[in-house]
Amino acid sequence: MDNENHLDVDLLQKTELWIEGISLQKAHLDDLAHRVAEVLELEPNEVMVVDVREDHIVLDILRPVLKASQIAGKGPEILRRVAQVSGVILSEKASLHSEGALGWVCLDQSDYGPALERAQQMGEEIRQRVARRAMVFSTGFEVQKGLIADTNFPLIEDRLKAEGYAVFPGGVLPDNVGTIAYRLQGALDEGFGLILTSGGVGAEEKDCTVEALLRVDPSAATPYIVKFEPGTGRHVKDGVRIAVGKVGLSRIVALPGPTREVQVGLERLLEALGKGWDEKQTAEHIASALRGKWRGHGVMPCNR
To answer: Radius of gyration of the chain from Cα atoms?
Structure first.
């Protein structure tokens, strides 16, 4: 049992914890969230109240992975501590529930072992299913308006399907960093394990796919393919970059727009995924091949 208590439990983005049979009268929500955080052995800023209704509240746990010992059987203690907050009234039927592993707070110790085994099995099934779901976006005004044919999506779709992916079209992304970030986040929320974009990684003002990806994953790897002097020609940025990020179970990859570069980058990506490489290794593996394409065009690429 001690080893089980120390196992990591991935919440799989189901981080909401409901308290039902609760009413509030001028209660301080931060105090309430802090009491729950203490019971779950979290920092005060890792729990927040995200919804308040007449008979229930919803808390969000802001840490994606917890130890089993932080969750299992903690329900009675959570209710006891919450009831001590000024302005909180719990009914006799007050209870907690969650759609995910957080529901373990309601477990008896005798139910804990079987529940852990079921959750591990379910988590692995979810990981495998998510990993093989891909959403593919194209970018750019010229594609959006039908001025040029989108040759990238059919190429990516065929190649990914050959590797066993279920491929879904994400449509065309506009040249707007906020909209792109919103659409990428939407794909994450829908449970796609691989999210690909093609285009919008250049050095012109309209190119903003990498910047949007960084809003979704600020730690994404973004190696340069080639560097420019800002202000020369149409270049307002200092070079062309790709990006590889990861959020939860999902990998997000921004490839260039030219179809030949997409083909090269996609092959390198699939190779890296097959080897289980991290984001930095994957991004550099893709970028190194694309730098070779720039050399072929007589442009001096960036070495890193």
So the answer is: 24
How far, in Å, CA of 64 to CA of 201, rounded? 30
Terminal Cα-to-Cα distance of the chain (whole angstroms): 48
What domain range is 113 assigned to?
Answer: 2-126
CA separation for the pair 45, 47 (Å, rounded)? 6
Q: Which residues contact 182 (CB under 8 A, 6 or more apart)?
A: none
Assign residue 167 the CATH number of its domain.
3.40.980.10
Count Cβ atoms below 10 Å from residue 171 Cβ, excluding itself.
Answer: 15
What residues does 16 pair with on adjacent strands?
Answer: 60
- Predicted confidence (pLDDT) per residue in 283-298, tens digit: 999 999 999 766 544 4
Q: What's the pTM?
A: 0.63
pLDDT tens digits for range 40-75: 999 999 999 999 999 999 999 998 888 888 888 899
Q: Which residue, 126, 161, 186, sits at the end of a domain?
A: 126
- Please check whether residue 163 is in contact with residue 270, taking contact to mean a CB–CB distance below 8 angstroms: yes
Q: Are residues 173 and 143 in contact, defined by beta-carbon separation less than 8 angstroms? A: no
Tell me how far apart the alpha carbons of residues 88 and 245 are, in angstroms, rounded to a whole number.
42
